[in-house]
Specification:
- It comes from hydrothermal vent metagenome.
- It is built from 13 helices and 23 strands.
- The protein starts with 6 loop residues before the first helix and ends with a helix.
- It folds into two domains: 301 residues, Immunoglobulin-like; 177 residues, Rossmann fold, CATH 3.40.50.
- A hairpin with a 6-residue loop joins strand 22 and strand 23.
- With 583 residues, the protein is an alpha+beta fold.
- The radius of gyration is 25 Å and the shape is globular.
- 26% of the residues lie in helices and 27% in strands.
């Protein structure tokens, strides 16, 4: 007869089992990876103008995404005639052969890429009370509406200009931290989403990569899927970037005395000045009731002279934004560097009360400078007495980007962490067209980009102005889609088209996203995908979107806090706190 195990033996075995289970649960889940890998690459040895033969497209297919068609177009104007050289590889029936690409399970991968060119834990912020619904006086936003669902049987093409601005999220954060709810018109979903890292790998030796991933919505029970379509630009280092000619146009009108706005402008610009090289130049124009030059183009090595000019500024008079901006462009034109970066940086609250005061009127006057190669960055300061419409539209017409600074940390994000994205343009008139397969997708809705819509027939019309893309920039778009029951295959073909800023050659790439690419559960999708969807739904709630009636702030708070812990990310903790005080 066998001896029965004694009590101490049983206790030992039980403790061992519990320890093994605890160790297993502490391991990081691989499908929560935040990285992505390419699946379709249009290869080229460098970021140079393509030759007479368009680049051969190489597809790679890590398990889930099929590339069925890649097209490259080179558009060259010859004596007024547009010559189109194109090479197209079609394979709509079979999957592309997989390439050897290191991947992480569940992570998205680029649909196409273009020709070459702390460990410390973070604690959540303290939770505040729900903000008031009141709005500061004299704040101007524009209501662009909310995109509806569209039946693919009616229109299966979705075309829009990319947007890399982040001003809307920064302004909403300022409202909430001041104890106020942001007005719905202040919310642009795409600028919320693009305020966060998308987790895309920088594709080597390429201009751009297209990414796509998708999963079932955790907020709906009607079969809705969320798709994230993203574009990642190549990175360029500060050491090898072209020299820059920057012209600061600084608002010193009386309104800039509020909340120490001018003081924050000075501190923010000092951060940028300290990043300049000796071969860069900086000029300064200020405007109040009129405009004047404070500093003619000065080498970046002469920091003392530049900073003394900045810190000598005092507020004065009314607000002649038109005169200040035009004088700034005049100075930028005189300091123009033929093979360099040429940019006007406007620091203002966007208010104009002398001269032309409309965004359209001023924007029309600067368009000619943008066409001549001088880009514009607009940076907003202040909250009460602030014109968001002016700042955004000027950036759009000035072939530039729009940011909002309310803290020195935001200034560091703009001028240190993302300085190359702020200064160096790698793609002009970048636009996306998503072609949904009618046999697979029943209806779709683009969440955001309401003021970036482009007519479908204008996707290849290169006279239509679209977005400018900076080095290292990322842009993502979120779609809600409902599939045809039981359908399998191609969900959409994603097309990206842009103009090279140096050669002015127009390029186009595309890739295909299929049902095989969909992740079966939202919670097993990549963490950055989950974050993008959570952010988009938060923006939907803030703008009172009809389509977010099944989403609750409490659910978003729980998901944001979980993601902040999993990603160990201070900015995601800040998001979770903003959601908490929005309830």
């Amino acid at each position: 007869m066998k001896n029965k195990p004694n009590l101490s033996t049983l206790l030992f075995l039980l403790i061992a089992v519990l320890l093994l289970a605890a160790c297993s649960s502490s391991e990081k889940v691989t499908n929560d990876s935040t990285t992505s890998n390419p699946i379709a690459v249009e290869e080229s040895s460098s970021n140079e103008e393509s030759d007479d033969s368009p680049s051969q497209s190489i597809t790679s297919n890590p398990q889930t995404v099929e590339v069925t068609r890649v097209v490259t177009e080179t558009v060259i104007e010859e004596g007024g005639t547009i010559v189109v050289e194109a090479e197209e590889a079609l394979d709509s029936e079979e999957y592309a052969e997989p390439s050897v690409v290191e991947e992480v399970q569940g992570a998205p991968a680029p649909l196409a890429t273009a020709p070459a060119v702390s460990n410390e834990s973070i604690a959540p912020a303290p939770t505040a009370t729900r903000p008031s619904a009141s709005v500061p006086p004299a704040v101007f936003f524009e209501e662009y509406g909310v995109n509806p669902y569209i039946l693919t049987s009616v229109d299966n093409l979705s075309t829009f200009s990319l947007d890399v601005d982040t001003g809307s999220y920064s302004i909403a954060r300022r409202y909430l931290q001041d104890g106020l709810m942001p007005p719905p018109a202040a919310i642009r979903v795409e600028e919320f989403v693009n305020s966060f890292d998308q987790g895309y790998e920088i594709p080597p030796n390429t201009d751009f990569a297209i990414y796509a991933d998708g999963a079932p919505s955790p907020f709906h029970t009607d079969g809705t899927y969320f798709l994230r379509i993203g574009v990642q630009g190549y990175e360029s280092s500060e050491e090898i970037r072209p020299s820059a000619a920057l012209t600061f146009v600084i608002d010193v009108s009386g309104s800039m005395a509020q909340d120490n706005r001018l003081g924050l402008v000075k501190q923010s610009l000092e951060i940028l000045v300290n990043r300049m090289r000796a071969d860069d130049t900086i000029a300064i124009v200020v405007y109040g009731s009129d405009a004047r030059v404070v500093l003619h183009p000065t080498n970046g090595s002469d920091r003392n002279t530049i900073l003394n000019a900045i810190y000598s500024l005092e507020t004065e008079g009314s607000t002649n934004l038109e005169a200040g901006l035009l004088l700034g462009y005049e100075m930028a034109n005189r300091a123009y560097k033929g093979s360099g970066i040429n940019r006007v940086i406007l620091a203002s609250d966007g208010v104009a009360n002398v001269g032309s005061t409309s965004a359209d009127g001023i924007a029309a006057q600067i368009r000619v400078y943008a066409d001549a190669g001088i880009q514009l960055t607009t940076i907003g300061f202040g909250l009460g007495n602030y014109n968001d419409v002016m700042m955004e539209q000027l950036a759009n017409q000035g072939d530039g980007n729009y940011g909002y600074i309310d803290t020195l940390k935001e200034a560091e994000d703009l001028f240190v962490d993302n300085i190359m994205s702020t200064l160096q343009v790698i793609g002009l008139d970048a636009k996306i067209q998503v072609e949904f397969d009618r046999n697979v997708v029943q209806q779709y809705r683009l969440i955001g980009y309401e003021n970036r819509a482009i007519a479908d027939e204008d996707f290849r019309n290169d006279t239509i102005d679209a977005a400018e893309f900076g080095a290292g920039h990322t842009a993502a778009a979120i779609y809600a889609v409902q599939l045809v029951p039981g359908a399998q295959g191609r969900i959409a073909t994603v097309n990206l088209r842009w103009q090279d800023p140096d050669s002015r050659v127009v390029k186009e790439i595309n890739g295909v996203f299929t049902t095989d690419s969909l992740v079966s559960s939202f919670d097993t999708a990549p963490l950055h995908y989950q974050l993008a969807i959570t952010v988009s739904q938060y923006a939907e709630l803030l703008r009172d979107s009809y389509w977010a009636d099944s989403v609750s702030m409490n659910d978003l708070r729980i998901r944001a806090e979980r993601l902040a812990s999993q990603m160990n990310d201070e900015e995601v903790w800040e998001l979770a706190n903003l959601i908490s005080i929005s309830q």
